[in-house]
Amino acid sequence: MPRLGILALQGDVREHQATVQSLGIEPTLVRTPQQLEEVDALILPGGESTAIAHLLVTSGLREPLANRLNEGMAAFGTCAGLIALSAEVLDGRSDQWSFAMLDVAVRRNGYGRQVASFETPIEVESLGLVPGVFIRAPRIERWDPQVEVLASHDHGDGEHPVLVKQGAVWGCSFHPELTSNAEIHGLFLQHVGF
Ligand code: GLN
Questions:
Q1: What residues contact 15, with CB distance under 8 A and at least 6 apart?
Q2: Domain ranges of the chain
Q3: Residues lining ligand 1, CB < 6 A?
Q4: H or E stretch including 185?
Q5: CB 134 within 8 A of CB 117
Q6: What are phi and psi of 46, to 5 degrees?
Q7: pLDDT tens digit string along 108-151?
Q8: What is the CA(84)–ligand 1 centre distance, in A?
Q9: How far apart, in whole angstroms, are the C-alpha atoms of residue 157 and residue 73?
Q10: Which stretches within 71-182 are classed as H helix?
C-alpha cells in the first residue's frame, strides 16, 4: 500500500489530515527528511507560502523534496501549497523560491486580501460541483499547454484555472480541505495509485 504524507511545517495540516482520514487513509506528517523518505505522495497544505518556504530550508527538506518531485513523486498543493509548486510566483517576496513543478504563474493574493475571501461552487471535471473556499488565494495567471485544467472559475474578470495537474503534480487555488467534501482529495489519490 502506498504511503501518503502531509507536509507539516505550517498551515492547515490538521484539516488535510482529517480529510484523508475520512477517506480511510492514515497519513504520515512530514517534518524531516527521514519522514519524507517514508512516503510515496505528498500533500502541501495551505498557509503562508513564505513561511513554508523558509521552514523547508531550515528543516533540511528543500533539497530532498525537490529531488523526490523531480523523480516523479506525486504531490498535491492547495493554496500556499500550489504557490510552492509553481514555476513562477508573482507578487512574491523578492527572495521567494518555489519548486517549479507546475508550469504556471501564480499571483499571490490574486483574488484580493483576507476581506475579499469567498466561497463559491466550482465545477470539477468528472466530479461536478464542489465547494470552493478561497482565502487570500493565489490566482493562476499563465499556464503552459502541458498543464491540464480540471476546473476554472470566473471571478468577474475572465476564466482562470483553479485546479490543475501536470503529470502527478496537482495544484488547487482554493481549500478543498476546509469543507466536509473529500472528493478532490479522492480524485487526486485515485489518479496517483491509492
Ligand atoms: N496568500 C497566501 C500566501 O501567499 C496563501 C493563502 C492560503 O494558503 N490560504 O502564502
A1: 45, 175, 177, 178
A2: 4-191
A3: 46-49, 79-80, 83, 108-109, 135-136
A4: helix 183-191
A5: yes
A6: -80, 160
A7: 999 988 778 999 999 998 999 999 999 999 999 999 999 999 99
A8: 10
A9: 35
A10: 80-85
**Grid coordinates in use for 47?**
498557509
C-alpha cell at 145: 499547454
Q: What is the pLDDT of residues 23-68, one digit of tens each?
A: 999 999 999 999 999 999 999 999 999 999 999 999 999 999 999 9
Q: Whose CA is nearest to atom 2 of ligand 1?
A: 48
Tell me the C-alpha distance between 90 and 102, whole Å: 14
Alpha-carbon distance of 36 to 40, in angstroms, equals 8
Question: Cα Rg for the chain, rounded, in angstroms?
Answer: 15
Closest CA to 133 of 146, 147, 119: 119
Alpha carbon distance 41, 176 (integer Å): 17
Record the pTM. Answer: 0.97
Considering the domain 4-191 in this protein, what is its CATH number?
3.40.50.880
Tell me the per-residue pLDDT of 61-104, one tens digit each, with 9 for 90 and over: 999 999 999 999 999 999 999 999 999 999 999 999 999 999 99
Cell numbers representing residue 107 in the block? 499571483
Burial of residue 9 (number of CB atoms within 10 Å: 0-12, 13-18, 19+): buried
| Ligand 1 atom closest to residue 47's alpha carbon, by position in its atom list | 8
CB 7 within 8 A of CB 30: yes
